[in-house]
Design goal:
- Its EC number is 2.1.2.9.
- The protein has 2 domains: 200 residues, Formyl transferase, N-terminal domain (Rossmann fold); 109 residues, Methionyl-tRNA Fmet Formyltransferase, Chain A, domain 2, CATH 3.10.25.10.
- The chain has 326 residues and is of the alpha/beta class.
- The radius of gyration is 23 Å and the shape is elongated.
- β1, α1 and β2 form a beta-alpha-beta unit.
- α1 packs parallel to α2 and α1 runs parallel beside α6.
- 25% of the residues lie in helices and 26% in strands.
């Protein structure tokens, strides 16, 4: 089967590598134009382009994939199928209909949940226990096409966006290779998405990382993990932004709180949300709307990211002080 692969970031590069290793014919790779990097303005290749060049595959980088000249170039590849993974441009209906087997997308969620641009982050933030990869037939909607193949993956209570992303990019490569094998055998059968079960994962905005200590410790922990390493979860301390990189949610009894309990007990009647309750050698404990947040890694505005034990050598936090006031 002759493939044109469309993708840009390392999530997509992993899938491209898997297809090449499996022996599939990749006629061309389509990726976003090179971007200038740093102060020097040196052009930076996308991870997908770097992968393609290593394997001697032709790279096509149109500014706008819908332009007539770009469409004609795509036609010239005479591909049987287009495989898309985080490409970064919307395909026209003409392109979707071009190959014999259409365009197939590698999406990092178990559709119909978390359609959209940031399914990995939202799965963590909203407390999902599992996620996965969906290989889907693309249509004119946003991740609304028929599902062809799925693989599940558990989400651990320690997973951040970074760690879960890296697990899913490997799974995405495995899944697309398996799906193509089934397609070639005629054993891949489309399944409609249940619209009533759908949810949307919009683009992540930096403002979404602002911590509301009125929420539970468990909810705040999920926000921190979902926002790590970008754009990060943050609060304020004496008017300066304070990023929180690693924390452990504890219930009112001090035990680890893996999920919100049925009872909505506050962190403690004597404490306001955001109030520093304890300052230990290696962490600080902060009151929340339910339970306490033990903070182990943080970063004050203008400083580097560091462990709490090192942070506290230079910043004299005290019980009774409060986080969250800009």
């Amino acid at each position: 089967m002759k493939i044109v692969f469309m993708g840009t970031p390392d999530f997509a590069a992993q899938a491209l590598e898997a297809l090449i290793e499996a022996g599939h014919e990749v006629a061309a790779v389509v990726t976003q134009p090179d971007k200038p990097r740093g102060r020097s303005g040196e052009l930076k290749f996308s991870p997908v382009k770097e992968c393609a060049l290593r394997h001697g595959i032709f790279v096509f980088q149109p500014e706008r994939i819908k332009r007539p000249e770009a469409v004609e170039t795509l036609k010239s590849f005479a591909a049987d199928i287009f495989i898309v993974a985080a490409y970064g441009q919307i395909l026209s209906q003409e392109i979707l209909d071009m190959p014999q087997f259409g365009c197939v997308n590698i999406h990092a969620s178990l559709l119909p949940k978390y359609r959209g641009a940031s399914p990995i982050q939202h799965a963590i933030i909203r407390g999902e226990k599992t996620t996965g990869i969906t290989i889907m037939q693309m249509d004119a909607g946003v991740d609304t096409g028929d599902m062809l193949y799925q693989r599940e993956l558990p989400i651990s209570h320690e997973d951040t966006f970074e760690t879960l992303h890296d697990k899913l990019k490997v799974l995405g490569g495995e899944a697309v290779v398996q799906a193509l094998d089934l397609l070639e055998k005629g054993e891949l059968f489309p399944k409609k998405q249940a619209e009533e079960e759908s949810s949307y994962a919009p683009l992540i905005d930096k403002k979404m990382g602002c911590i509301d200590f009125g929420k539970s410790a468990c909810e705040i922990d999920r926000l921190i993990r979902g926002m790590t390493p970008w754009p990060s979860a943050y609060t304020f301390y004496h008017g300066k932004q304070l990023k929180i990189w690693k924390a452990i949610p504890k219930g009112p009894d001090g035990a680890f709180q893996g999920s919100d309990s049925a009872s909505r007990e506050p962190g403690g009647a004597a404490y306001a949300p955001g109030e520093i309750v304890k300052v230990e050698k290696d962490h600080i404990s902060v009151a929340t709307g339910q339970g306490f947040l033990e903070v182990y890694e943080l970063q004050l505005e203008g400083k580097k990211r560091m462990q709490a034990r090192d942070f506290l050598l230079g910043v004299r936090m005290k019980p009774g002080e409060r986080l969250g006031q800009e």
